[in-house]
Amino acid sequence: MAVTKRSNRQKSDQDPAERMPDPRVGCDYTEYWVRAKKSYDMSADPAKKRKLTKLASSCPNVPLTYTVAS
């Protein structure tokens, strides 16, 4: 997801549990995080999982596909 230098600096290393971008991109941002976590078989801490689940609940119910990273 392309962002400006300023936006990237403001975000720093915060994840969805700590910071969310503009609400207009919330579903795309949530999909990006879930897809990345699944692709690399990564876990999510409880706070991040709660936040992603809450965000996803307001998104259209669309199947999410991903490819496992090798």
Q: How big a fraction of the residues is strand?
A: under 5%
Q: Which geometry do the CA atoms define?
A: globular
Distance between the termini: 21 Å
Structural class: mainly alpha
Order of helices and strands: HHH
What is the averaged pLDDT score?
77
Sheet with the most strands? none
Individual helix count: 3
User: Low-confidence parts lasting 5 or more residues at pLDDT below 50?
Assistant: none
> What is the number of strand segments?
0
What is the helix content? Answer: 40-55%
- Radius of gyration (CA) equals 12 Å
Describe this structure in words.
- With about 70 residues, the chain is mostly helical.
- It contains three helices and no strands.
- It has helices spanning about 5-10, 25-40, 45-55.
- The protein is globular.
- The mean pLDDT is about 75.
Keywords:
single chain; 70 residues; mainly alpha; 3 helices; 0% strand; globular
Provide the fold topology:
Elements: H1 5-11, H2 26-39, H3 46-57
Please outline what is shown here.
With 70 residues, the chain is an all-alpha fold. Helix content is 47%, strand content 0%. The protein has helices at residues 5-11, 26-39, 46-57.
